């Protein structure tokens, strides 16, 4: 059993991953979001809720206590959020961080898939890259995850590529992302200090 803090638990990736943990593990979940009213019915035995901002240092440190794994699926000022999470985890003494970024931040998308989605052509990815750099420069046992465009498909047929390898496809199901996150949460050597691309096979 693993204690997992899901930051961004009400978002599309966070909510599907939450359900996947409940359905496929016996892990204990702490669900963190700025507005937790959207979480719906909780599993009273396995879930608890904390409401607040990841950039609130005291609040974040309180949420981090007792956790084994931190999974962050966020939007907004990602560099500031990544900095806050790295600092908070260092101070509390937690090492394992799983953080959603985006495909294209390393200009790894080949022409046949759509090279216009790379950072060099898409400045909207700058914040994702900055967040990934902040995390990779830390001493944490991190895995940043670079999904393709995600959809609500029911499949978990996916391909994983490492940093420095060309991206393998354009899209991926959120369920596939959740499956990878659960595997990473249960194997601290899988994807250790690496960035993993994930796409539909």
UniProtKB/TrEMBL annotation:
Residue span(s) of domain NAD(P)-binding: 8-187
Pfam families hit by this protein: NAD_binding_10
Molecular function (Gene Ontology), one example: biliverdin reductase [NAD(P)H] activity
InterPro entries xref list: NAD(P)-bd_dom (IPR016040), NAD(P)-bd_dom_sf (IPR036291), Polyketide_Oxido-like (IPR051606)
PANTHER family per UniProt: FLAVIN REDUCTASE (NADPH) (PTHR43355)
Record protein name field: NAD-dependent dehydratase
Species the sequence originates in: Secundilactobacillus pentosiphilus
């Amino acid at each position: 059993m693993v204690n997992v803090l899901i930051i961004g638990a009400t978002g599309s990736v966070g909510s599907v991953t939450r359900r996947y943990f409940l359905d496929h593990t016996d892990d204990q979940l702490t669900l963190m979001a700025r507005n937790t009213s959207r979480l719906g019915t909780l599993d009273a035995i396995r879930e608890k809720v904390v409401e607040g901002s990841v950039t609130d240092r005291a609040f974040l440190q309180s949420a981090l206590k007792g956790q084994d794994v931190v999974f962050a699926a966020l939007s907004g000022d990602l560099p500031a959020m990544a900095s806050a999470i790295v600092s908070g985890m260092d101070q509390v003494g937690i090492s394992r961080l799983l953080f959603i970024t985006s495909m294209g931040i390393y200009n790894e998308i080949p022409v046949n898939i759509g090279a216009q989605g790379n950072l060099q052509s898409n400045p909207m990815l700058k914040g994702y890259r900055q967040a990934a750099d902040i995390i990779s420069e830390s001493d944490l046992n991190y895995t940043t995850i670079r999904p393709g465009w995600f959809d609500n498909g029911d499949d978990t047929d996916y391909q994983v590529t490492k940093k420095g390898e060309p991206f393998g496809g354009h899209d991926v199901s959120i369920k596939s992302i959740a499956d990878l996150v659960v595997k990473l949460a249960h194997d601290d050597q899988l994807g250790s200090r690496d960035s993993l691309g994930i796409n539909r096979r």
